[in-house]
Write a structure and sequence with these properties.
228 residues; mainly beta; twelve-stranded antiparallel β-barrel; two-stranded antiparallel ribbon; 1 helix
């Protein structure tokens, strides 16, 4: 909780009181039938509750606090907080770059906390969006293996989204590859994929996604999100 308070104060301090109107604040509540992250279940195949709050400044700077209930065998934590700060800029028309850092926080399992940096390039043309991103986790105390060695992790991802004209329907697809501390394989890394669709009704969104990896069974995940 102290960490969340410090983050909120830091976000408010970024913008002077005279420019408060330049900051947009949004929040979301949601639920998923299975919390899947990069294809792997972090809720043991069970439903999870999720929430987030985002601060966005006209300059392109932003901060997000995201949380979810989790349930992993052998892992004591029952909730995860992702604290993200970043900056997004338009390079040329339709092409943007986003740089961010995320602190993954587990209040009841703090020895597993870690930081990850991400760079994303996105191209948007009409109703279609294509993106490519790379995330990197440097060696740190939260990524120690059974031999007490600090390990690193990398993740590459390609994504696509298309919003159907005149319909509140968006279809998405993604392909990722992870290698390092979190890939859960002896060598070579793991692949994950997803194909989904979501429907928006004003502040309510309903979605369904088929996702999986080459090391765990695929799953059909339903989601519900409410913009506050």
């Amino acid at each position: 909780m102290r960490t969340l308070i410090r983050l909120a104060l830091a976000l408010l301090a970024v913008c002077p009181a005279s420019q408060t109107a330049a900051v947009d604040v949004s929040a979301e509540l949601g639920a998923v039938s299975d919390y899947r992250y990069r294809g792997l279940s972090l809720s043991d195949g069970k439903p999870a509750a999720q929430a987030s709050i985002t601060f966005e400044h006209d300059s392109g700077a932003y901060g997000t606090i995201w949380s979810s209930t989790i349930e992993e065998p052998g892992f004591e934590a029952d909730v995860e907080f992702d604290l993200t700060g970043g900056y997004s800029v338009e390079l040329v028309e339709s092409l943007s770059l986003d740089l961010s850092a995320t602190y993954y926080l587990y209040p009841s399992e703090q020895s597993s906390n870690y930081v990850e940096g991400t760079a994303t390039v996105e191209y948007a043309q009409g109703p279609a969006t294509l993106s490519a991103s790379v995330s990197f986790v440097p060696r740190q105390s939260g990524t120690k293996d059974e031999d007490d060695r600090k390990r690193r992790n990398s993740y590459w991802f390609l994504g696509a989204a298309y919003q159907l004209p005149k319909l509140p329907l968006t279809v998405t697809a993604g392909l990722g590859h992870e290698a390092g501390f979190f890939d859960e394989v002896e060598q070579g890394g793991k692949w994950d994929w997803s194909l989904g669709a979501s429907v928006a009704f004003e502040s309510l969104r309903l979605g369904v996604t088929y996702t999986g990896t080459d090391i765990e069974e695929d799953a059909l995940v339903a989601s519900l999100a409410l913009d506050l």
